[in-house]
Amino acid sequence: MQNHELDHTNAPPTEVISRYLEAIYYITAEGEAVRSARLAEWLSVSRPTVTAALRRMIRDGLVRFSAHKDIELTPRGLERAASIVRRHRITERWLTDALGLDWVSADEEAARLEHSISDLVEGRLYEALGQPTTCPHGNPIPGYSEPVEGELKLARLTAGRSATVTRISEVAEREAPSLLRYLLDRRLVPGARLAMIEVDEVGRTVTVAAAEREVTMSQETASKVWVLPA
Questions:
Q1: Contacts of residue 25, Cβ cutoff 8 Å, sequence gap at least 6
Q2: How many helices (H) and strands (E) does the chain have?
Q3: What is the pTM of this model?
Q4: Which of 22, 78, 176, 223 is deepest in the core (most CB within 10 A)?
Q5: CB-facing half-sphere around the CA of 182: CA atoms within 13 A
């Protein structure tokens, strides 16, 4: 019985558990607290379903609860999650750089393909693509790069300051694909330079100048864009 449990614990996570690991990784990367309700919202499942999955993940040593009752990845869980995210982001680069898919389509297709790509294929794709360090949306590829130091959410940039877009939140990728299209159409993409013109605390909007045009967006939308102040 003991050997059976050990084999089960060391087995690769199922596709369902992989989605949970990936979601926890993304939410944590955005500085959010990971709670059962947040996972249920992210994955479009019921709270009881999340509870059952978390029970299995705790049993397998993938997650644990912090002192504040937040869900966090264990070292083993982080390693597994980073592997999944790495495959997803490398696949996105292949779909955009080699096949010419747009942001939105690439993310959707990568979500379907990531669970069937082997370590061998992942490595070959990485080399063939020129060893990229980020996904098309600017998010770092685990194991190959780290988040940019000093970056902050566009919503926190004060009026009069300039910045460079570093990445688009994974929350936007997964929960608001239409936002990706919105940002792409307005050229608010990684590497783009912008200047904060106005922060409207009453209307909860911000107005920025980018690509020779002014763009006004909600502070909620601006919180999905990460920038590095000049």
A1: 73, 78, 81, 82, 84, 85
A2: 10, 8
A3: 0.85
A4: 22
A5: 15
